[in-house]
Amino acid sequence: MKRPVPVLTVLLLVLLVPRLWAEQCSVKLVSSAQPDCWSLEEIVLEVTGGIHSDREKALALHNFGMKHQIHFIGPMEDGGYLVDALKILGVYGYSLCGNNSAAMCALYNLAGLEARRRFLNGHVVPEVRFEGRWNYIDTDMYGYVVKPDGSLASVDDLLADPSLFRRDSFNPDPFLPFDSMKGMQSCFADTEGKKDYHPYLCAHIMALRLRTRESVTCYFRPRDRFYIAPSALPQEMGTNYRSYWLEGPVRANSLAWTDTVPAAYGNALFEYRPDLGSQVFRLENPSVSGVKTLSGDELPPLAAAARDKPASLVVEVTTPWVIAGLQNDLTDFQDNSGGAVVSGWFWRPADSDENRILVSTDGARTWEQVWENPRLGAVPFRVDFTPLVEGHYGYLVKFEWVDREGSGKVGLEGLALETWTELSPMALPRLEPGKNTLTLSNGIHRAALSQSRWEKGVGLRDQELQNLMPVEGSSLLVPVEPDKPGILTFSLPADGLIDELRLGVEARTLQQGKPQDVSVRLSVSENRGASWTELAAFDSHPEHEQDWLTFNHVVRDRSLSGADTRVKVEVDRGGLSKVVANSLVRTAPRVPSALRVSHTWLEGPGRRNRQTVSWTFQPGAENTSYEVVTPEQGIINESFKIEAIAPGKTGDAE
Question: Residue 240 has what pLDDT?
Answer without folding.
Answer: 57
